[in-house]
């Protein structure tokens, strides 16, 4: 949203002039197709005040009106191009936690259900006392529901628990693998106050990006 950065950005990404573009109140939003690739969201792209949003994030989209300005496509979604290779960050292989000074850093592994954003929120959070049991229980069941095997789902829960500042005991962890739950999105939010659904790509209809299902 800072037009002053456009000349420098175009030096990195000359294809900007050809891709899907939205005129915002202060500048532009550019849309790329990931085509199965993985990129990491950042608000400091190329060391500048440039935001890059990946899956699990949302932006204001046409025909929204913010402070009397209507967002419009200057180049439509139908002309969206693949994301430039320069912006692609390959997803890491599954891995447990690694020591980082006095803390453990959990590297989010591969799993089925990438569009279900609450899975990633649980995996990326240093779960606190009082939220560990429900979080790991819901994580385990969400992994199963999204076609991860029972063995692999348990493996990820064990690795996630091991990365916590205060992990559950082995006895408490065994209670996680109990009868499946039937919570919907509202039920999960009721159990886990930190879960935010606004950025969940799973809410998109038909799994396709189009005007009617962009979160506004």
Automatic annotation (TrEMBL):
Protein name (record): DNA primase/polymerase bifunctional N-terminal domain-containing protein
Classification via Pfam families: Prim-Pol (PF09250)
Organism: marine sediment metagenome
Residue ranges constituting the DNA primase/polymerase bifunctional N-terminal domain according to the UniProt record: 11-74
InterPro entries the record matches: DNA_primase/pol_bifunc_N
């Amino acid at each position: 949203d800072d037009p002053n950065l456009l000349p420098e950005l175009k030096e990195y990404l000359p294809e900007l002039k050809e891709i899907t573009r939205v005129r915002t109140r202060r500048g532009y939003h550019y849309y790329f197709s990931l085509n199965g690739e993985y990129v990491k969201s950042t608000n400091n792209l190329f060391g500048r005040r440039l935001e890059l949003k990946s899956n699990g994030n949302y932006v204001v989209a046409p025909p929204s009106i913010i402070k009397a300005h209507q967002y419009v496509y200057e180049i439509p979604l139908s002309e969206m191009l693949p994301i430039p290779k320069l912006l692609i960050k390959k997803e890491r292989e599954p891995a447990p936690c690694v020591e980082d000074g006095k803390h453990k850093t959990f590297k989010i592994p591969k799993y089925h259900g990438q569009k279900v954003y609450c899975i990633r929120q649980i995996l990326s959070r240093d779960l606190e006392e009082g939220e560990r049991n429900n979080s790991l229980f819901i994580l385990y069941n969400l992994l199963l529901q999204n076609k991860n095997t029972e063995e692999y789902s348990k493996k990820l829960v064990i690795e996630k628990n091991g990365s916590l500042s205060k992990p559950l005991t082995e006895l408490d962890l065994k209670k996680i693998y109990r009868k499946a739950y039937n919570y919907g999105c509202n039920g999960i939010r009721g159990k886990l106050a930190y879960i935010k659904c606004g950025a969940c790509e799973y809410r998109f209809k038909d799994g396709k990006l189009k005007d009617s299902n962009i979160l506004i």
